[in-house]
Write a structure and sequence with these properties.
Largest sheet of chain A: 6 strands, parallel
Number of strands of chain A: 12
Distance between the termini of chain A: 76 Å
Oligomer: homodimer
Strand order of the largest sheet of chain A: 2-1-3-4-5-11
Low-confidence stretches of chain A: none
Chain lengths: ~350, ~350
Amino acid sequence: MGERKRVTIKDIAREVGVSAHSVSLALNNQGRISEPVRKKILETADRMNYRPNILARGLVQGRTYLLGFICPAIHESFFASILSGVEEKCSRKGYDVILGNAFGRDIKTESDALSRILDRKVDGIIAAPDPRAYSVYEPLVSEGIPFVQIMTRIPGLNAPSLSVDNEYGGYIAARHLIELGHSNIGFINTDLPFYEEISQRYKGYTRALLSLEQSVNPQQLSVACENLIDIEQSKEAAKKLLMENRSISAVFAPTDHAAIGVVNACLELGKRVPEDISVIGFDDIDLAHYQIMRPLTTISQPKQEQGYLAFEMIEQLISGEKISDRIIKPELITRTTTAKFNK
Amino acid sequence: MGERKRVTIKDIAREVGVSAHSVSLALNNQGRISEPVRKKILETADRMNYRPNILARGLVQGRTYLLGFICPAIHESFFASILSGVEEKCSRKGYDVILGNAFGRDIKTESDALSRILDRKVDGIIAAPDPRAYSVYEPLVSEGIPFVQIMTRIPGLNAPSLSVDNEYGGYIAARHLIELGHSNIGFINTDLPFYEEISQRYKGYTRALLSLEQSVNPQQLSVACENLIDIEQSKEAAKKLLMENRSISAVFAPTDHAAIGVVNACLELGKRVPEDISVIGFDDIDLAHYQIMRPLTTISQPKQEQGYLAFEMIEQLISGEKISDRIIKPELITRTTTAKFNK
DNA sequence: TTGAAAGCGGTACCAA
DNA sequence: TTGGTACCGCTTTCAA
């Protein structure tokens, strides 16, 4: 209704008095067309306000210039920031992103999101997959659909991944605390073994602990917490840890959400942060940065940057290049929740 | 490369021994086809792992089941939450969302984002537009392209809008402070007149002030701040306000970012929140909720919910219904930054 | 350099 | 109920 009929390549052809093919050539700068004709076509197209129909082009070329982006929680600023980076690059290169949200790490939802995206014949897919979703993503690999996994990687899946160096991140987090004089450094762990990024952070943490003069047992300094994104759960876990280990003077929480839980736990236990307990997180989400009273010391993941890189990787894959994994170095961001150990 | 050729409607036709047309009918449950044939076609399609090509269908039907979503900062959890709501509904109804990020309220970027989205022949557009972008969005209206504006509305533009009742929100925010005994209630204003949502909140605030026994002059209790999303700028504005008006015992900041700035200002000025100064924000973003020490009292905007509603509105528009504006009631969320006035 | 025609994968219209 | 055919808007192949 009221919708203006869009001008097509044929309209221009008729107007200029050439064939549709010539118009197509001129529009795509294919060269083999005489300059005056080309110019006239371009002018007419412009005057008539021509916009190519990407669908039609996609249908014949088998390309859509569409990318799929799948993540478990787009409302989290963490994923939204990565998406923002992807989108920015896309807009520059003529791509568009379509979104698949896999609410709350439900494999079924994730699988549905992927199906929908595949039905759109996207040129490539960037996903922060559930590590258990091997069977969901495996078909992408075997069918050769460009696919980059970010954040998490699915064990055994032969698809390039982009992530921060989690082991190193865990290491510098613990090193930071050790350099402040702490030796009894707690860790909020997960009991879900498939979250490799967490176990890598744990590994870095234990490696740093090795440099301590007196040896400590990392296992005794850890608690398990089922969901490290849940502040309440992390708080409860931290309370347990702190009450059972009175000697702990610092805690490394492998996510910022967990770190916030830890600070909350300290507060409830009447311990001051950082005077009594130092706390360091991981990710550097907005929530860590914009704490009014206690901005969190944490390990940063460059999020927008990861979006850029993910786009570049998928672009290379689309153009047929072979690429390998990319690993970004995380950085220590010292803010207010860590301080020198004072016994 | 290695990409399996997708099975098309013709492959199924050949396999079953019917025409492509019959396959199309069967697949779309168009009815006028005999049950056994229908069944066989469906089975074969399933067995061959058939997936329809949405592009091809869109090309002929003139529909894409694609929606455009435009906002100024997708990395903000506020917009990301709305998007999340839109996406959830979309996934249920066979739509997909493509994203247009209009970084930092730059009209040119916004206009480009819209062009890209229009080139995709989307069925409808949901946008949180810059209020100054009249000329960018006007063509949508005159060409009858389904369009819903959320959050902000462009003055004079004849397109349905969805937003919170900002005047009412401003009113209940100020009422809350008044009920706590405050009468000198400061306001962080913007000097940019086109942000109607802010001026509406201000209007609600002044209306509430009218109920005070002794009359106060709202203008004397306001400062201008250019960017109410910028915490630093808001902090500086608040410091100025607080230093020039020693009698102020409460501040209404019309965004949560500004409210965080105000709390920071209080801290720097050696004033306690909420003992010396009560602070209330607006929006209820994650940053307000997850403050460790001082979760913010604020006025909530249901974000996910707005995503749902925006989808419903655009869906109605697409199906040709006439719809009118929708206004949601915001709610007071009392947390820790407001307290009884004690002179 | 240019034009005519085929075809991408579907749907819609018509006739059988 | 079914099949044939045109066509959506564009690119590609082949001839001219």
